[in-house]
Design goal:
117 residues; mainly alpha; de novo design (two linked rop proteins); 4 helices
Length: 117
């Protein structure tokens, strides 16, 4: 099926990213529940969600538009991860897997978006 987003490697990798973000943010202090935890999770979930929506809309223009939204959510997530790293609790956490997946997803999104121009 033309609109089967689940076959897209970028969607699959971004789903892995969401799982990693949830795991990482579960280790944040409780006072961050409504701050960085909530915001990071929301941005993480937005990445594969917008890939799926764009793909299901069925046109290259719509796909590109939603991939750009997904890319923006990834940039927000990058910023929130960087903030967490700079806060005192961040020095005790391992960001490696999230960083790797996020970088990979952002590169994939950038390439796909460029190819749709």
């Amino acid at each position: 099926m033309q609109n089967d987003y689940k076959n897209l490697i970028v969607w699959q990798k971004s789903m892995e990213l969401v799982v990693e973000v949830y795991g990482l943010t579960s280790k944040y202090p409780g006072n961050e529940l409504y701050g960085l935890v909530s915001q990071s999770r929301r941005c993480g979930v937005s990445v594969p969600s917008n890939i799926a929506e764009g793909k299901r809309r069925g046109t290259d223009n719509e796909l590109r538009r939603f991939l750009l939204i997904s890319f923006g959510s990834g940039a927000e997530l990058e910023t929130q991860i960087e903030i967490a790293k700079r806060l005192p609790f961040g020095k005790y956490l391992n960001f490696k897997k999230v960083d790797e997946l996020l970088e990979e997803v952002m590169k994939m999104l950038n390439k796909i978006i460029s190819n749709l121009e």
